[in-house]
């Protein structure tokens, strides 16, 4: 009889423990607390969708503010250091890492016109909440400059846009042809880059400049990141905001940080958030 009572007591205690554990589990469920956002970039020339032509083409699709006609055979830019902010204090900072192993590269993106796979930047691990602002760096800052090998989209051998270690990366690249240019095949090449201000040590003009540009854009509406909501802001870039006032008869061969310095302040105004899909 005593054995039966002890057995029942043990069973009752075990059932109570299970019930208590189950209750605790229900009161504190394990929830996924981060989500995703897809940032899409669309490139335009004024009100025209950007189209890439073959090198040597004389199909001049576009005109600048002076009526000089031109086309594009290569165009793109680097995006890095993305940050999202929300009205209630939400913050997401994209992880950054420059490494020789392409699989270890994080936080650097190369938007290349003509390659649709580069138009969408997929951000993961965003804390659940509301967001109404995006900030990013146009270019590759000092933390992405390394002596020696670097992989992925930063690897010049794999298509990375790089001058040399002292000059740094080409942050924003424009190539094409214009009937206003007197260079061979009417070429236009405007490469805007540079990662560090290095004052001249003598009376010669300064050669190295930091032409990275911070871009801060409000969303057209507050969006929510959650288990079921993955918003997608669409950012439009207008090339005429950068070269609309450029005289392509003289400014058609830009290949250094110093030469590109006058263009850099125009870059931030070329980007806007046109609309956002929730």
Automatic annotation (TrEMBL):
Tagged with keyword Signal: yes
Domain of life of the organism encoding this protein: Bacteria
Q: What is this protein called?
A: Copper-binding protein MbnP-like domain-containing protein
Record's signal peptide:
1-25
UniProt cross-references to Pfam families, sorted A to Z: MbnP
Species per Swiss-Prot/TrEMBL record: Belliella filtrata
Outline the extent of the Copper-binding protein MbnP-like domain: 35-255
Q: Which UniProt keywords apply?
A: Signal
Xref: InterPro entries = MbnP-like_dom
Asked if the keyword Signal belongs to this entry, the reply reads yes
